[in-house]
Amino acid sequence: MLLRKTALVLVLLWVVPQIGAQDKISASGSEELGWYVVRPGDTLRNIAARYLGSEARWERLWKLNSASVDDPDEISPEQKLRVPLPKELPSDGALLTKVSREVQDQPTPLEWNDSQENELLRARDGVKTKKSASAELRFGDNTSLVLTEQSIVFIGEQVRKQDVERQQIEVVVGQADLSGVRSNDSGGQFEIILGEATATPQADRDGVLETRARRPEKGGAQLMVYSGKSDLEAAGTKLEVGTGMGSSVAEGKAPSPPEKLLPAAQVLTPSSGSKVATPQPTFTWQPVVGAQSYTLEVCRDPECGILVERAVGLTESKWQPAGLPIASLYWRVAAVSPSGLDGYASGPTSFEVLTGAIDKTPPEIQIGVVGPQQAPRSGLNKAWIVGSGLEFKVEVDDQESGVESWVPHLDGKAIESSALQGPWERGAHTLAIVASDRAGNHQTREIPFIFDPDPPEFSWGIEGGGELGRIAAEPLEGFAAVQRGLRQLRIGGLDWELDSDRVQIRVRPQTRKPIPFADLGHFGSDEGLWIMARDGVCTGVDTLTYELVDRSERGRYVLHFEAKDCIGNTSRGSLPLVRGKGKKKN
Fold this sequence. Notes:
There is one protein chain. This protein is mainly beta. The protein is 5% helix and 46% strand. The chain contains four helices and 49 strands. The strands form eleven sheets. Strands 1, 4, 7, 9, 10, 14, 17, 18, 21 and 22 form a ten-stranded mixed sheet that branches. Strand 9 (134-138) and strand 10 form a beta hairpin. Helix 2 crosses helix 3 (58-64). The longest helix is centred in the N-terminal third of the chain and has 10 residues, at 19-28. It is elongated, with a radius of gyration of 43 Å. Residues 1-30, 467-493 and 580-586 have low confidence and may be disordered.
């Protein structure tokens, strides 16, 4: 157990094994310099023996610190000395590799003082971080501890149990993450004290160790194993917690049966490598089944040894900070189960904040209409009229913070973007595009439209006061009378004439001589054939055309006609016409 008996808060979070930093220390040897705080009883000789391997190398230390040390036999407690970093750190100490914001350390038995990177610590030394601060400790076997905001940790004494040397870490309040890559024959080298519970983590077959131990303020303990395994002992009961499992210990109780940890969440925005033009980007991720809340961290490094922001107890799968610095950053998120155990953290996702200006402008939305269409026209139609084959093209842009997402809605319900190509149900609809930028600004744009997949309809009949006009007409209910004479064509050499306007074709005799009409009878001088087109959605038929085709038989012709509405829906028809002599049919 540590000698410190006061209430300590220890929070060591989400450490990813990193061999590179340790290799740098080993490879550079004495060329890489660190700091050492002199304690009572220290001399240049015992400091040289600890970190340079021999008392005889004390002169090397004197030369490095000649500006502050006049007499090599007189150094004072609390004095900071420059020290070459050893190729291998002593097993009973650590190196403070990263310091962010307000961090202090306590070189026992001295008082707390401001920390700095590459400071060498010894057993029973402490490190403390303030609000929004963080620090990283590295041990000689490449195992790391990361302290997040408002945390205190003391390096414990080494103990020997069952012929294994173990370094103790006591967590009075808070949590500790222990991780690293180590040889398989090293065994369990750490013992974590959690009130009445004790955890002894060990690496897996590949030498990877990742364990989180927590001592809640209300008492008890929690243990989560992400790689390797760990024994957990409390109230006379010991159990093994394997990879991907966790266990809780109530105050005075035995450990609970191990339960499976939640998987890592899939991050959405900001995506890896993205650049955001706002200090308030919206962080989003896919919800994790079974999660009660989430913990999110933003850091300057992938290991999160340099903390920028941390949010806990998030109940939704999104979060927006008050403001981030202009920098290249990383973020990650972990799901928390109802039992309070932390699941796997997502891998560090890189992004860059480009500006410190607050974005209050919502995204811009452009909706294009490609395909058969008629735009709204004053006094005629207030909505777009669209036909089969039309596609709505959506463009969303945000110059300041970037677009987070946009979702199409049809008649108030969210739809897939593929539904922007139709077809839809006949009739009136409203398309709405709901967009958000990464600063949390929202914009909605609506466009009403009518889907008309149907072509115009034809009707025909006989006009006039004769017998045919009385028995063959097909009146159209609700259709207004048609004005004639807008256009007229004469078919040379025939005994009838044709004329048409936008909705109607008429065929009438040119002479008073009756013209036989196959299967119907004869046109008299006051009778005629009419063909009419109408459309129930467009404002009238756009075009109505005809063609009279000679069938190379005496007196036999076919009248072909075609109508199009305002968006190009087309219908076609034909009637045979026979000119010749014959008896009038009743």
